From TrEMBL:
Organismal lineage: Bacteria, Bacillati, Actinomycetota, Actinomycetes, Micrococcales
InterPro entries reported in the protein's UniProt record: DUF3263
Record-given protein name: DUF3263 domain-containing protein
Domain of life of the source: Bacteria
Species whose genome carries this gene: Nesterenkonia lutea
């Protein structure tokens, strides 16, 4: 089971497009976290089975995006 804060994090990711260039600001306002702390917590969260059970499509998309970023970084090296 995921916490209310984690549910809010996934909700923010589900509707990221609403925040245009102000996503970091929305993170601070809605979750009272710095952007760095948010992304660290989000990466831990999407690796959990509880998050996958809560919103499978979103978590799988976030995992794919993360993996694509890792692959892109690896090919630049």
């Amino acid at each position: 089971m995921i916490s209310e804060q984690e549910k809010r994090m996934l909700g923010l990711e589900r509707q990221w497009w609403k925040y245009a260039g102000a996503k970091d600001e929305a993170i601070t306002e809605q979750l009272a976290m710095s952007a760095v702390a948010y992304y660290q917590a989000l990466n831990r969260l999407i690796d959990t089975e509880a998050a996958l059970a809560h919103d499978p499509m979103l978590v799988k998309r976030l995992r794919r995006q993360r993996e694509a970023r890792h692959r892109a970084r690896a090919t630049r090296r």
